[in-house]
Design goal:
Blueprint: E1 8-10, H1 44-54, E2 62-67, H2 74-85, E3 93-97, H3 109-119, H4 131-142, E4 148-154, H5 157-160, E5 171-176, H6 181-186, E6 189-193, H7 199-210, H8 212-217, H9 219-228, H10 233-245, H11 251-264, H12 270-284, H13 288-297, E7 305-306, H14 307-314, H15 318-330, E8 335-336, E9 343-345, H16 348-356, H17 364-383, E10 407-409, H18 413-422, H19 424-436, H20 440-449, H21 451-457, H22 460-477, H23 480-496, H24 500-516, H25 520-536, H26 540-556, H27 560-576, H28 580-596, H29 600-616, H30 620-637, H31 640-656, H32 660-677, H33 681-691
Parallel strand pairs: 1-10, 2-5, 2-6, 3-4, 4-5
Antiparallel strand pairs: 7-9, 8-9
Helix pairs in contact: 3-4, 7-9, 7-10, 9-11, 10-12, 11-12, 13-14, 13-15, 13-16, 14-15, 14-17, 17-19, 17-20, 19-20, 19-22, 20-22, 22-23, 23-24, 23-25, 24-25, 25-26, 25-27, 26-27, 27-28, 27-29, 28-29, 29-30, 29-31, 30-31, 31-32, 32-33
Length: 692
């Protein structure tokens, strides 16, 4: 896409690594630990204990479990201590908030495994589709890498178990409100339980934040504030932030307001009263726009968010919203994830408080508006990545109720893909939220907009989950073309992981639904999918029949691009049937058509199959030339699967030419990629290697 136009907001995304599948050097592994809290206080005894425990002799990773009630400072201690020992782990420090008690729900271990593997250098399209395969790959990657892994806010042992790295020299820091007895039974776990601050340490935290002079000048009121906060760092931090933001505000005023709030909340437990009272005090002092943003963001579907969606949630400009976000951070109600004003999140107790501010019947319309505004922003931004792929159907337009005020633009393909990766968890949560809120048209549109990410980076478990949700949304919306499209995409996700029966069921449902809607364009994809399943299962005659019908339908609809794809599939099938002359004719026609349309990716796919067909005729030099051109394109595009197919095809050329050693070398390069992707083709190639 071109550069920004006036009124555009350019979305900032992390820069991709150099090279399509580049792996980070071990000397500069990921450094994901959150920043150390500015006013981390006390816990000296706990720090000494953690230091002693890590020195114990062991032959498995050290696991330090920090346990205690919500708001007691588990994360602050874990973060501070983690930084103090991070120098021992140059291979990398990984971090994940497992969301054990978040309103957005616990994070699945498979999602965290995917994030960790990408951080350790595995490309996104190199992630297996099955959770067990993800866990196996994680153990393999971490076997010789001593890592520091910080797992914050765990709810169950099941969340933690698969995330323990394989290297015995690794360190795992876990925080949880529970003591996770099963984890302790299964592993050598060092448990450190936190108690609330005593009055002296509470006063120390207050003094560090607002200054010793201010505390000493109103000692009695400072001690009342400390007592009312019950030794909970989160309550103390919120009140301290309020006071720090207003250096002339008397402590007496805050102590009086906090005391009144405590009385109002007397029905709660002592701990809940302290937390609620401190949050309410900060919230009640917010100006209307900041209070509205706080409440709206409590409804955000995902774990963290950027400025764009925050602005959309209340219909403000990004510039005005940045100031409001800064105020919420200053008041201790929001966390700036990296200290750069780009990504924000809540402490889970604060998120719950924010969500409660929009609870109640009288606010239902406000809740619905805030949610729709945020979901529509995600759709609007995701739609800006549509040019990453060639459309597989005529676009179904969406009419925005709350069109974002500024456009979202990306300057390159890499930036578009990086944004999709950055927002993947939020986009999936947005689809789920739209379905739960019965916003079915919006849910379908969001699911459909994720297609470029899934086509190029796979993420098979997410791909299948989102596509199946898309089927449900489209069905309830009542649009048969949309429903058929999502059946086809569900079929593609199932086929990619070798779940062929599920794939056939989805493709057939897609064909029937598209036919009922008289949508021949979508039906073309269903027939193509059935042919691809038949080809994968070596049912050559069935594949030829399906692809021949696919070609007829594409020509009847004058869909030149679909004609090119059908010709590729027919050519590949003729090659498998050892009919090279017919294969070459179809593939040369496909390459010419797709090249003329500027579709470099699918032209390269045609050349992969052409190389295979030429090898059958003994034209080895020409075959290698075609495959070399395809390999260059696929590497530049970052398509690990197609690169593996190119390597395999080059191996087949070498094998056919009688160069067994070269064939083995090329197969050995292709196999780990296919295994890493969780592709069923890996078994076929493994057997071929064994035969050599």
């Amino acid at each position: 896409m071109g550069g920004p136009v006036p009124g555009d907001r350019k979305v900032e995304v992390p820069q991709p690594r150099t090279g399509a599948g580049a792996v980070r050097p071990v000397t500069s592994g990921p450094k994901q630990l959150p920043p150390v809290p500015a006013h981390f206080t006390n816990r000296s005894e706990e720090v000494k204990l953690l230091d002693r425990l890590i020195e114990r002799e062991r032959d498995t990773p050290a696991i330090q479990l920090i346990s205690g009630q919500g708001g007691i400072g588990k994360t602050a201690l874990a973060t501070s201590w983690g930084h103090s020992v991070s120098g021992r782990f140059p291979h990398g420090q990984l971090h994940a908030d497992l969301g054990g008690y978040s309103t957005t729900g616990p994070l699945a271990a498979s999602e965290v495994l995917g994030r960790f593997l990408v951080a350790l250098g595995v490309p996104p399209n190199g992630l297996p589709g099955h959770p067990e395969e993800l866990a196996n790959l994680y153990r393999t990657v971490t076997a010789d890498k001593p890592l520091l892994v910080f797992l914050d806010n765990a709810r169950t042992t099941e969340q933690v178990r698969p995330l323990i790295p394989a290297s015995a020299d690794s360190l795992v820091i876990v925080t949880s409100r529970r003591t996770l007895g099963t984890l302790q039974a299964e592993h050598l776990v060092n448990l450190v339980q936190l108690d609330p601050f005593n009055s002296a340490h509470s006063e120390e935290l207050l003094s560090r934040t607002i200054g010793e002079n201010r505390v000493s000048s109103e000692t009695a009121h400072a001690r009342l504030i400390v007592r009312l906060c019950s030794g909970l760092p989160i309550a103390l931090s919120t009140i301290s932030a309020k006071l720090a933001a207003k250096p002339r505000m008397p402590l007496a005023k805050v102590a009086s307001e906090l005391q009144l709030e405590h009385r109002r909340l007397a029905v709660l437990t002592k701990e809940a009263t302290s937390v609620q009272a401190s949050f309410n005090l900060s919230y009640d002092a917010l100006p209307p726009d900041a209070a509205a943003l706080y409440a709206a963001l409590g409804l955000h579907p995902g774990p963290e968010f950027g400025v764009g969606v925050a602005a959309a949630s209340i219909g403000k400009s990004t510039e005005a919203t940045e100031d409001l976000l800064d105020q919420l951070v200053d008041d201790g109600l929001l966390i700036d994830r990296h200290g750069d004003g780009e990504r924000f999140t809540f402490h889970d107790l604060v998120r719950l408080h924010a969500r409660e501010k929009t609870a109640g019947h009288e606010n239902e319309r406000d809740r619905e508006i805030a949610i729709r505004r945020m979901l529509e922003w995600y759709l609007y931004a995701a739609s800006a990545t549509a040019d990453l792929t060639v459309p597989d159907q005529k676009q179904i337009e969406y009419t925005y109720e709350y069109r974002p005020k500024t456009r979202v633009t990306f300057e390159s393909r890499e930036e578009s893909l990086a944004w999709l990766e950055l927002e993947r968890a939020n986009l999936i949560a947005a689809v789920e939220t739209a379905y739960e809120q019965q916003m079915y048209e919006l849910g379908w549109q969001l699911a459909a907009a994720m297609w470029p990410l899934f086509l190029l980076h796979k993420h098979y478990p997410d791909f299948l989950r989102v596509s199946q949700l898309g089927v449900k949304c489209a069905s309830r919306w009542g649009n048969h073309s949309a429903e058929a499209l999502m059946h086809n995409r569900s079929g593609a996700a199932a086929r990619g992981t070798g779940r062929y029966d599920d794939a056939v069921r989805h493709y057939r449902s897609g064909y029937e639904t598209a036919s009922a809607a008289n949508d021949q364009v979508v039906a073309i994809r269903s027939v193509e999918g059935l042919g691809l399943v038949a080809l994968a299962k070596d049912r050559v005659e069935d594949a030829l029949e399906a692809f021949t019908e696919n070609l007829r339908m594409s020509r009847a609809q004058e869909r030149t691009h679909d004609v090119g794809l059908a010709l590729i599939n027919l050519g590949a099938t003729f090659t498998k049937a050892e009919r090279p002359a017919e294969a070459i004719a179809h593939l040369e026609e496909a390459s010419a058509l797709l090249s003329e349309q500027g579709d470099e990716y699918n032209d390269a796919r045609a050349r992969i199959e052409l190389g295979r067909a030429l090898a059958l005729t003994g034209e080895f030099a020409v075959a290698r030339e075609e495959l070399g051109r395809a390999q260059t394109v696929m590497r530049a595009r970052g398509s690990k699967f197609e690169e593996a197919r190119t390597l395999q095809a080059l191996g087949e050329v070498a094998e056919t030419a009688g160069d067994v050693d070269e064939a083995k070398r090329l197969y050995d390069q292709a196999l780990p990629i296919l295994v890493g992707l969780g592709r069923p083709e890996a078994d076929v190639l493994r057997n071929r290697l064994a035969g050599l």
